[in-house]
Amino acid sequence: MNDNRPQSINTTATSRDNTPKYFLLGGSLFSLALLYPILEIERNGLVIWTSVFWIVLLTAVRATSHQARIKKISYSIGGIVVLSGIGGLVCYYFTGNTHTWVFTSVNALTLLFLVFVTSSVLYGILKSTKIGLGHLIGVASAYVLIGVTFAYAYIVLHSATQQALLHNEFQVTIPEKNEPATHVATYCYYSFTTLTTLGFGDLAPNH
After folding, report:
1. Other beta carbons within 10 Å of 68
2. Nearest C-alpha neighbor of 205 from the set 169, 170, 173
3. Chain mean pLDDT for the chain
4. How confident is the model at residue 174 (pLDDT cuts 50, 70, 90)?
5. Closest to 175 measured CA to CA, from 32, 42, 48
6. Contact partners, residue 81, CB within 8 Å, separation at least 6
7. Closest to 78 (Cα-Cα) out of 122, 121, 117
8. How remote is the C-alpha of 164 from its chain's centroid?
9. Percentage of residues in the chain with pLDDT exceeding 70?
10. Residue-level pLDDT at 153
11. pLDDT higher than threshold 90 for residue 149
12. Residue 116, preceding bond cis, omega within 30 degrees?
């Protein structure tokens, strides 16, 4: 009886440690999805949407199962990504999209961090031996993170090549604007229609 007691306590501690972090990640991703239409407001909409997106990145770090030291390093890298993103948004807000290299650099850094946190969350879920509601929410969150990661990969590729990657079959979805908010909205839409196997319909790749 004494041998089973510590094991029960450890299981409870593990459950308490794992469940809330996935709920928090899932909630922040849900908030990001709800705010998707705000990208239509262009500059102000992009500022609000990106602010929530940074919260998603930091909650994704919290949802990883790394050791405390590695997690601190991850938070530090996430802080660098957020600070560089703030600098990019300030530049965009006051100068428009005249400094494209700034957005390309910030988006590339964000993409690298997204790849790291998405793979870390997936690793933590796959190595878990106990599956519960929290882990199911974690799986759904990882699925959404994969879609966001690919969206930023398309955004970085677009920014680096300065060429549109998509063409519009119906000429209604892609507005004729070369704005970062438009790129985020368009490539997020394309990424998730592809991920959920709903595409290709209105948007299709050029190559």
Report:
1. 7
2. 169
3. 77
4. very low
5. 42
6. 54, 57, 109, 110, 113
7. 117
8. 22
9. 79
10. 92
11. yes
12. no
- Beta-carbon contacts of residue 171 (< 8 Å; ≥ 6 apart): none
Residues 6+ apart with CB under 8 A from 16: none
- Packing angle, helices 43-62 and 180-195, rounded to 10: 50
Q: Report the sign of the C-alpha dihedral through residues 103, 63, 48, 32, in that order.
A: positive
User: Nearest Cα to 156, choosing from 111, 102, 89?
Assistant: 111
What is the number of other CB atoms lying within 10 angstroms of the CB of residue 206?
8
Structure confidence at residue 4 as a pLDDT band (50, 70, 90) = low
Note whether 117 and 74 are within 8 A (CB).
yes
| CB atoms closer than 10 angstroms to residue 193 | 16
Query: HEC states along the chain?
Result: CCCHHHHHHHHHHHHHHHHHHHHHHHHHHHHHHHCHHHHHHCHHHHHHHHHHHHHHHHHHHHCCCCCHHHHHHHHHHHHHHHHHHHHHHHHHHHHCCCCHHHHHHHHHHHHHHHHHHHHHHHHHHHCCCCCCHHHHHHHHHHHHHHHHHHHHHHHHHHHHHCCCCEEECCCCCCCCCCCHHHHHHHHHHHHHHHHCCCCCCCEEECC
CB atoms closer than 10 angstroms to residue 23 = 17
